[in-house]
Structure formats: structure tokens, C-alpha cells
Amino acid sequence: MKGAEILLKCLIKEGVDTIFGYPGGSVLPIYDALYDSSIQHILVRHEQGAAHAADGYARSTGKVGVCLATSGPGATNLVTGIATACMDSIPLVVITGQVATSVIGKDAFQEADMTGITLPITKHNYLVEKLEDLPRIIKEAFHIARTNRPGPVLIDFPKDMQEKNIFYDEDAEVEMQLPGYHVASEVDLVQVQKAADAIRKAKRPIFYVGGGVISAEASEELLKIAEKMQIPVTTTLMGLGAFPGDHPLAIGMLGMHGSRYANYAISECDLMLAAGVRFDDRVTSKLATFAPHAQVVHMDIDAAEIGKNVEAHIPIIGNVKQSLQAIWEALGDQQSSGSEWCEKLQKWKQQYPLTYHASQEGRIMPQYIIEKLSEITQGNIIITTEVGQNQMWAAQHFIYKKPRTFISSGGLGTMGYGFPAAIGAAVGNPGKKVIDIAGDGSIQMNIQELATAVQYKLPVVICILNNQFLGMVRQWQSLFYEGRYSYTDIMCQPDFVKLAEAYGALGIRVTEQEEVEAALKQALDYQEGPVILDFQVEREANVFPIVPPGASLIDMVGGE
Amino acid sequence: MEKKVLSAIVENKPGVLTRVAMLFRRRGYNIYSLAVGETEKAEISRMTIVVEADEKMLWQIIHQLSKLIEVIDVINISETPSVERELVFFKVQADSSKRGEIIQIADIFRARIVDVAPESLIVEITGDSGKIEAITDTLKPYGILEIARTGKVAMVRGSKRGNNK
């Protein structure tokens, strides 16, 4: 059997039914094999789109996302997508064609050293040097991508290996050879007991949860403990949806653009239950004043995260789901009937709601659009975001109730991520509406994928919060650079409605706040394919509150 | 910061050294020396890495290294009874008037003369950091023309295997 066919057989064995890709010279044999394979191939219009789509597919389904590109430029175009997935610990298997083994290292046409280039942005990578190794490499790649702290794994597959014929026994057991890689063992019950004792003693406990809770599917365990012990829950950007946003114990997002009450709560808590988080600088801001009174319980599957940024008093290394379950068991019959602490938080919630001013120009406020969307859909959709103000408003003003409904590039902060990720989420969740909250800057970074969404009739709605600015950078220029708007004004832009129509999508321009609801409903009802909603919003709306860079969380500015 | 010695048992595959070196560069850890060689098993190599790090950074280095798929085990040799040696060549300025003195010094340190030229000698020494520092200081006044060091290798004492996975 040919190498290319063996590749597809092995992918099917791993449960792959969909891959996102773009053909080219060095993957011709794989595309030839795909021609009559049961695997669905989604043809993107730029390889970066393939990587982000596979990522959006993975985040929304919990499965491993797979993308495919040719050697050289095809492969290097995946790099931003791979780095995005790596920063957010998203399981991907990335397959790149490589030039024939006989010319590797000779600067052949469309040759790029992909294992070298992606070394710091993958969990692991492989160059297939012997075709006999391919089944093992694929099995290992999926195992590595999805276990422990997930991440992208790249397989660089030379063209001559794809063409080569060898005997392949589909039913043969494939043995992995990973002497240095072990799936996380059971959690340390001594540590668990310490954490349970700390919870019993705590007067002002708080859960600080992140993407790790979503990837470990630990939401149920989290909810059980939070309710039993009446512990308020704040989430990071990556953790949105891990805990129901409308729950009385939910206190929203913390950090640079967190809610006032979450940041106050973190700053006053005496016990921090950090679950699946990495104490990112956008969360902690000034480390010296972060949670100054807290005893820290840090649950993470990655031992290298313990103490990386913040010292943990009670580290629990292991799968977060197991850790939470073990804590739940260790707590026994203990109940909490609420506390002054919870009442205090409720008071803060009422006192400092996330709010915004009405437009001075009589234009639509971007926050209003997100609030309306949340209200109309009741959280029953998947939201993806681009990066910048659109992303923060989507995080602040939409109420996420379930895991895997908020999909955003948190760590790398990749503009142009949201739309292709929405395509991946739509492919992975047939029948579900996927909304990309976009800015007019970000959307232009991968706008070519409109053709993909039209071709596959994907019900993706792009909500462009169009302020004709690179808004987040403009906001920083306004707040920290004396209003010197250096190259952030992008008044010169396409007519997004005509652009949608040119691609065969539906385009709607919305200029009045009263039209927002109807436009959203129309787009949500539209099933024939993608929709662009071009909302002409207030040009200089800011994301508030904001913790200025280097400040303490309690020194938030704005949003009152 | 103190120098610490780590012993990493790794798969003997192409690219492993790059991964380790890249990790140190990317995370901003200082490598003082790094020595690699095959172990008793051909498919396994041992890397002896001397790093400058405090306790916190050392924990980070060990765990970040352990995350590399091809790294099988990492131990902190510095906190285990162990033997540590390094081999160093010194090319020392030595005309006929100084040659005798230098050979005497070499004898005292149990070093060896491995090359003799009209104007120079090459001294080979194997030892721990203290010994190498001492001979360096002693040879310096004669004029050291070149130094080549292997980097330290280390092994845990006794029958206990340092890396038992």
C-alpha cells in the first residue's frame, strides 16, 4: 500500500472524519488518496485558515483537530495557527508535505525545515524518515496531542514516502515507543486532603479556573464543589463557559479586563483554588500584589506550571477532573450554608456591574450588540472571537453557560483567528449556529475564508463591530500614549456588505441601535450560508474596566 | 547563582540536542556546560548539563526538560552523592627554560603532558571543578594560549542507578 493511503487509514483508525487543508505539490499523493477516502476534506483558501479551523473544531468538539498543507510556504502558513494552538494547549495533528528525502537539505523547491521551525511551538514533532514508522508515528502523535496537557503535534511527511509502496497490515497492533512520555498518574491524596482542610478553614475562598477545566471536562466536578461549599468562581478568558455564567456564584472574568467584583474578590480572598490555570500576566497583572492574602491551591496537569509565576502552597499535580473529584470526596458531608463572603460578593456585583456609557455620536454601542446576542440566544450558540476590543466585549457581555461555547485565541492573541475557527466549529457541530465576534481590522486578516464558508454552506455569522479603528491599540494610544493615534485609523476599508455579496454570502449593514435585534435575528435564522453583519459602532468606545499595565488588580480604571 | 549539575537521560535520536538547547535559549536559562554521549544502551544518551540557577529556576528547568517527549528522566545530581569530572586541555606557553616547571606542576596535579612543541606544551587534566580551577590558576602565570574543555560528566555514587526509569 502507498504511504499516502496508509496515512489516511491510520487517521481513520484514530477516529478522524474531517480534515482541513489546502493542496500543493508535495502532498499530491495524499490528495490523490483523499479523492476516494471516507474522510471529509474541507478546502480552505489559505493554510492559516486550515490550522485555525482545525483548532476551532478541536475546541468546540473536544476531539483532535487535523490539518494538512504542502511543503514550504503551505507549511509555513500554518505556523501562526500552530503557535495559537500551542499557547492555548489545543490538541492538533498537523500534517505537512515535505520534499523528497533525496533532496532534503539541498534547498529544494518549496523546501522548509518544518520540524526545525515548529520546534518551539509544538508539543512534539516528527519527520517521517522510514515509511514503516508511519503507523507508530501517527498513533503517538494523536496520543501526545490529546493526553496530559494537550497541544499540537506536527508530522512532516516527505513526498517520496507518500508514493512508496510497502506491505501494511491494518489489523496489526501498533506499539508506541515513548519511554519518556507517561500519562499523568493518580493525584496525591495527601495534597488533596490538605486542600480539603484548607477549604474547610477558609473564610473567603475563591475558585480561579481556566482552560484546563474545559480540556479536562471537569465542569461538573467544579460546580459540585462550588455549590456544596458556596465558593464563588471567577474564570480566565480561556475558562469562560467552564462554570455557568448565570449562576449566583459566578463572578465573571478576572484580570486586565475582568469585572471589578472578580478583581476585588481575588484581591481579598484568603484561599485561592486555582484549577487549570497558568497565572498569565493578563490575569495577575502586578505579581507582587496579586491575591496578597491567599493561600494558593494550584491544580494542574503540567508540573512545570507549579510555581512558574505564583508560588503554590498546596500544589496538586494531575488531571484537574480527578483532582476536583478527589477534593469533593475528601470534603465528605461538609456543607456550607453561605457566608458573609458570598453576601459581600453579591453586594459588589450589584454595586459594580459591567456597564458602559451610551454613544455620544448616537451610534450603536458595541457592548449592546453582544448583550442583545446573549439575550436572544440565551447562550445557546458557539461564539468565536477575533482579537482586540471585540474579543474583550465578547468575553464581558455574553453569558456563557456551557464549556466549549467560547472560542478565542487567549495566549497568542491571534488576529484573524475567529472566522476560520468559526468555520471549524460549524463543521464540527452541524446544526449549531456559530457567531464570530469580529473587528473590522481582524476580519480582514482571514476574510478569504468567506469562500470556504459559502462553498460548504456553513451557518456562520460574522458580527463586525465596525469602528474603522484598530480599536484596542487605539484605546491604548488614547490611554497611555497621549491620544497619538499612530496608524490605527482604518477608515479606508471595503464595503463589507458588497464584499459578502461578492463571495455569495449575505451581507447586512446596521447603523441604528434599534435595528440591532432584528438584524441579529435575521442572521440567526439564515440557514443558507454565512452572513456578515456590518455594525457601524461608536468609533471610540473603550473596553472598561482596565487594569493599566503593571498596576495591581484593585487599581482598575473606568467602567463605573 | 549557584552551579547545579543535572543528568538527563534522553532518547538517542537526531534533534534531541536541538530541543534541549532550544528550551534553554527560549526560557532564558543559562547553560554553563553540556556534555552528551551514549550510555550502556545505544538507543539512550546521557546529557550532563551544568546550569546556573536558584532553587526555583532549577525546579522549572527540571520540569520543562521532563516535558520534552524524548527526555526519559532528569535528576539533580547536585543533591545526590555523586562523582563529577571534566577533562581539560591547556596549551601553555613553555620554552625550554619553563618546561621543567610546568611538567612538575602537571605531576603534582596528576595531569599529563600530551604534546610538546618548542614553544608550548599541552597539558591534559581530568578532575572536578576545584582541581581544574586550581591548575588553571597555577598555569596562568606561564601564559595559557588555549583551553578546551569537555564539560562536566557526572554519575551517582553506589549501586543505585541515578536514572532508573
List the main descriptive attributes of the protein structure presented here:
heterodimer; A: 560 residues; alpha/beta; Rossmann fold; 3 domains; six-stranded parallel sheet; 36% helix; 16% strand; B: 165 residues; alpha+beta; Alpha-Beta Plaits; 2 domains; four-stranded antiparallel sheet
Q: Shape of chain A from CA axes?
A: globular
CATH T-level fold name of the largest domain in chain A:
Rossmann fold
Number of strands of chain B: 9
Instruction: Enter the CATH topology name of the largest domain in chain B.
Output: Alpha-Beta Plaits
Strand content of chain B: 35-45%
Largest sheet of chain A: 6 strands, parallel
Would you identify the CATH architecture of the largest domain in chain A?
3-Layer(aba) Sandwich
Q: Would you kindly provide a written description of the structure presented here, covering whatever features stand out?
A:
- The complex is a heterodimer of chains A (560) and B (165).
- In chain A, the strands form three sheets. Chain A has a six-stranded parallel sheet, sandwiched between helices.
- In chain A, strand 10 (271-275), helix 13 (281-284) and strand 11 form a beta-alpha-beta unit.
- Chain A is α/β, with parallel strands linked by helices and 560 residues long.
- Chain A has helices at residues 3-13, 28-34, 47-61, 73-76, 79-87, 114-117, 134-146, 159-163, 189-201, 211-215, 219-229, 260-268, 281-284, 320-331, 340-351, 366-377, 389-397, 418-428, 450-455, 471-480, 496-503, 516-525; strands at residues 18-21, 40-43, 65-69, 92-98, 124-127, 152-158, 205-209, 233-235, 250-253, 271-275, 295-300, 314-317, 382-385, 406-407, 434-439, 460-466, 506-510, 531-536.
- Chain B folds into two domains: 3-80, Alpha-Beta Plaits (2-Layer Sandwich); 83-153, ACT-like. Chain A, domain 2 (Alpha-Beta Plaits).
- The relative contact order of chain B is 0.21.
- In chain B, 30% of the residues lie in helices and 41% in strands.
- Chain B contains four helices and nine strands.
- The mean pLDDT of chain B is 93.
- In chain B, the strands form two sheets. In chain B, strands 5, 6, 7, 8 and 9 form a five-stranded antiparallel sheet that branches. Chain B has a four-stranded antiparallel sheet with strand order 2-3-1-4, with helices on one face.
- With 165 residues, chain B is an alpha+beta fold.
- In chain B, a hairpin with a 3-residue loop joins strand 6 and strand 7 (120-127).
- At the A-B interface, loops of A face helix 1, helix 2 and strand 4 of B.
